[in-house]
Amino acid sequence: MHIRDVLQAKAIHEVVTITPAAGVRELIATLAERNIGALVVSADGTSLDGIVSERDVVRHLHHDGTVINNTVGAIMTDVVRTCSPADSLDEVMHAMTEKRVRHLPVVDEGQLVGIVSIGDLVKHKIDELQFERDQLDQYVHQS
What we know:
alpha+beta, CBS-domain, three-stranded mixed sheet, 6 helices
């Protein structure tokens, strides 16, 4: 299984982005309205300038209660681990666990093509295991 398979199976293929100049209030509203945990930060909607998550907001809020008045660029993570559509599901799951991140942008030839969450990967892995179990069950119970 590869990340391209995970992207194809996702119900929503749109990558929601936000600009570095956007306010943290706008970020929070977008996260809440879309029911997502992270946004890719991109000045043009296709490049990757950073990533910002609920965790970023909470950590900055803990240290500075005025973070709500700041910009996304001030709180985003600008060194972003990415993956490609050709990466294996297991490799990406391992990298996410090792780096303790829950979202990875998917980049192909320098262009942002998607984003995967640990939830996307776990769901895909469970579906894969369920399919294999069903195939084995059918094989065992053949006449």
